[in-house]
Specification:
Low-confidence stretches: 1-37, 305-312
Strand order of the largest sheet: 7-6-5-8-9-10
Order of helices and strands: HEEEEEHEEHHEHEHEHEEEE
Radius of gyration: 19 Å
CATH superfamily of the largest domain: von Willebrand factor, type A domain
Helix content: 25-40%
Number of helices: 7
């Protein structure tokens, strides 16, 4: 069957954005899950029985279903390419004892990432602010990232959902086709105007992966909400981690960096007239018959245009 000219154009644009350097981007970023979108993009991690990442699988090993119906994979990519990634850091008073460990772990993540990843930080207590200067929305420089991390503080209340909304909005302005947020918090929220449902739905209008790292101890465990962290990661195809010791946070972030560099990207044309929540299921059937599992987003919201707030 011959592909439509509009589909060819979309695939060409996506492939070009994967291969082009960051400096080549001058126009606005794409929005995949929006009204009138032609291509649903799903980022997939494949794991063996020991939870090790599996690479090198061909396109014909994958099957994609939307609302239970099989969809033809129109785009497939499995190479290590740069991503846009944001570190979303809880800077409330409960994080004071953990601040230095989180900064060290963030730098370890940056060193393990693709050298052309574009990164940013969003900090929140009862307020939300970007770690990088206003004239620098993203950076590929580890020194700049370190400066941004060291600007963080630890005091006040917790506006996690406000921080996530602003971070997702900023993430969509990134230039790399693959986008991810890494959220470091205990999952509690006592100061946001935004609700979790709003953040959850916003994430489902995008093709971003959200990884969450839940950090709490005996001093603040009563305010922790690990289920929020799990739900957000599960819905977007990420993973939630709950390290028992602060020293383990570095290992978790390095694992996330490997995860981002080892995954697969699948694209398919959604059914005409798709609206509301659309469930996605990805299966993997390797030629050698191995039993493998996949981690991918649970679905997306069709017919909802991503809302960008210029002041965010």
């Amino acid at each position: 069957m011959t592909a439509s000219p509009r589909l060819v154009a979309m695939l060409t644009l996506l492939l070009g954005s994967i291969l082009a350097p960051v400096s080549a981007f001058q126009g606005p970023p794409r929005t995949v899950f929006s009204s009138g979108s032609e291509l649903v993009v799903v980022h997939v991690a494949v794991l063996d029985g020991k939870s090790h990442l599996v690479s090198g699988l061909p396109q014909d090993a994958f099957r994609v279903f939307e609302n239970g119906q099989p969809e033809a994979v129109s785009f497939f990519h499995n190479e290590d390419n740069p991503v846009t990634v944001g570190l979303v850091l809880d800077c409330s008073g409960s994080m004071l004892r953990k601040r230095e460990a989180v900064i060290a772990a963030g730098l370890a993540f940056a060193r393990s990432s693709h050298p052309r990843d574009e990164m940013f930080t969003v900090n929140f207590n009862e307020h939300v602010w970007n770690g990088l200067p206003p004239a620098m929305p993203f950076t590929t420089d580890i020194g700049e990232l370190q400066t941004a991390l060291e600007r963080s503080t630890a005091r006040g209340q917790t506006a996690l959902f406000d921080g996530l909304r602003i971070a997702l909005t900023h993430l969509e302005k990134g230039h790399q086709p693959k986008k991810a947020l890494i959220v470091v918090s205990d999952g509690g929220d006592n100061a946001s105007a935004t609700t979790f449902a709003e953040v959850h739905d916003l994430a489902l209008t995008m093709d971003a992966i959200v990884y969450t790292i839940g950090i709490s101890d005996q001093y603040d465990s009563k305010d922790a909400n690990p289920e929020v962290m799990r739900k957000l990661a599960r819905a977007t195809g990420g993973e939630a981690y709950f390290p028992r010791k602060l020293e383990e946070v570095t290992d978790v972030l390095e694992r996330i960096a490997r995860d981002l560099r080892s995954g697969y990207t699948l694209g398919y044309v959604p059914p005409a007239g798709a609206d509301g929540f659309r469930a996605i299921r990805v299966e993997v059937h390797p030629r050698d018959g191995r039993k493998l599992s996949v981690r991918a987003r649970s679905g997306y919201l069709a017919g909802f245009r991503f809302a960008r707030h210029d002041g965010d």
